[in-house]
Amino acid sequence: MNLHEAYLRALEPWVPAAMREMYVPPERPDLLCYGTGFNDWGVQTQQKACAAFAVLAADPALDAARTGMKAAELRDVALRLLRFNLASHLEGDYYCTDGTRWGHTWISALGTERMMHGVELLEPHMTDDDRARLRRVLESEADWLLEHHPVKAGLKRDNVPESNLWNGALLHRVALMYPDSPRAAAYREKGTRFLLNAVSVPADAESDELYDGRPLREWHADANFFPSLALHHHDYLNVGYMVICLSDAALLHFAFRRRGVQAPAALYHHLKELWQLVRELTFTDGRLARIGGDTRARYCYCQDYAIPAWLLARDWLGDEGVEAFECGWLEQIARECAANGDGSFLRTRCGALKDVSALYYTRLESDRAVALSIGAVWHRLLARGTPAPRPPRASAAPHIFTWRDEYHGAVAHRSATRLASVVWRAAEPPTALCLPPDASDMAEWRQSLCGMIEGEGYVNWQMPEEFAVTAYEGGFLTAGRTRVHSHGFVPEGTAPEQELAHQELLFAALPDGVSMVVLQHARVGQRRVYLARYGSLFLPIPNDIFNGAVRRYTTAHGTLVVKGVDAVEEVCELQSRWVCIDERVSVCGIDADAALHLYRPGRRNIDLKFHPWRPHVWNGGTLYCDVLYGEYSHEHGAADAGALMYDGAWQVCTCGTAEVVTHTVTKAHRLTPRGAAVCCVCCYGINGQSFVIVHNRTAAEAGVTVPGMRGALQTLAVIGEVEVRQNPGREGSTVKAGPRAAGIFCLP
Fold this sequence. Notes:
Layout: H1 3-11, H2 14-19, E1 22-23, E2 33-34, H3 41-58, H4 64-67, H5 71-87, H6 108-122, H7 128-148, H8 161-177, H9 184-196, E3 210-211, E4 214-215, H10 216-219, E5 232-233, E6 236-237, H11 239-259, H12 271-280, H13 306-317, H14 322-340, H15 351-356, H16 358-384, E7 401-405, E8 410-414, E9 419-423, E10 431-435, E11 452-455, E12 459-472, E13 475-487, E14 497-509, E15 515-524, E16 529-542, E17 550-555, E18 558-563, E19 570-573, E20 578-581, E21 585-589, E22 597-600, E23 625-633, E24 637-639, E25 644-653, H17 658-663, E26 669-670, E27 678-684, E28 690-696, E29 702-710, E30 714-719, E31 722-726, E32 731-737, E33 742-746
């Protein structure tokens, strides 16, 4: 089966599920609405469903037995959906189901752009009235953007790369569709300004590169991306919205491609560099490695819109390696659909979300539907068309990739055997990963490997206070400090927020290509507090549809087979210093007396991030995760100011066999007392090398002696001021570390 048919087959079973969400306005039986029909997200939901039905209706390879509807019936649905959308616009004669009319906002163009590939297929079947209404709506939106919506950008405030892209795209699209418009030239000029201020970087402010005869610096409003191409969108390092930018650009690229016309050069501004970064932050099966986390339903929205981004990379850059991403993601979609059994894309995992918000749920369903429709129609276009003009062919992803961004405290290292990352300014900060690049089903970002402390408030979070990152050949070192807060208490008169604790964290990706060392030290803050539960390590392990909802945890005492998504909530004491998970990832305590605990939540526990407008306790997770803890307490009680909560030291490896763990990793040991101001550990890579890691957790200079060596320590990386002195007799070294300094050294 070719990819065109694969996308089509993935979309077809959704039709019966979608028809159950259709609504016919009583006073306008000629119209049809998918989802709520409300303004804003409801409009986009409607538009995306329209495009999906239009693509199905127009495809000669349609299998009507799978949709339960013939092509003519599907086309009728698509046309009625389109007519509802046009009628409920400010230029129309009807309204959304909430009594409002949509249009003339910064986001109005988004759903319109995402449905236009379907509208193009419907055009031969439209009436003259349909065509006139469509033109009025599109020109009305373009006029509003031209006259009322300013071009702005910013690294942290006014960070709007994605909307600049879709708004610039709409202006260029309207000029392309209606060249006789008296404002076509103005649309193109403002559209170019939007596009050049989408994937914009600080250096653009000085650039003499010409666009439409003018240097880039004259077009430039501000930078949306850091020089590293990190994106601080929604106040965190947002890999998902890097993909959304690529997908928005793809929509216009293929609109021009379909007509055999060269798209404006401004559309591709910095897209090649952005794609090269996104490609490295993608697991081998197409799932995004969202190293900075996610605030929304897992494996939805941004993940779905990777499809147009992949097709852009394939067509424009000649990157045929994206086919593995496409095939891998289609397999994951098929696995989830099979688990649902009703044709829906998300009903099993997101059923609780549907019960509290039909608007949100149908939005996510239509995101997947329209993305699949894009895959189907564009692959069909590519199969029968001539290759587009393109830059030199992109090379395959390198074996070794290192990237960092200072503002977010982000660092990532990828090889054939390990994808390791740490991000301090994350969605739910901080977060760290250490996984095989082909183990996407084991990835969850929420405070991963950063310990867990919860008070009596209904939402608890860590805030990075200070951090530093550095990379070296084969790995990285990063250390920092966080404060833990609890918010939202039951008693009247209680302060809305309370500081619980502070935590010192260190992460070191070793140059053995598989290991990452994690040091965690948490103490209660400056006042007595009440704690609900806390634990060191905190490694969430998805155990849901994508891995068959079964995990195997092998310890020194045998193998524990654990089912996910069942009704049991429990804490299993593994009574082992180490554990191997499905022979893919292993975790070992560096302390000889370390003991691991496995928490089974009994429900899908990864839900949307808390926001003031949404209660945190709606109990509607979209992913089930087991959680590995080290030291763990779930006894509610008081803790005195300054009390030590945990001092954990762990080595995580992407080599998950018990043999490797017991013969190599368990040799690790601590060289300083637990709870000491300076932590010093000795650990071993699977390449046979020995490493010493030192972390001064205090605000004063401190030292530690590393005994039992012959020869000087070799410095791999340091943070802050670190001095190494060889002791007399060449028996050991003394490491002096400045305030909150750290270092990683190789033993001779």
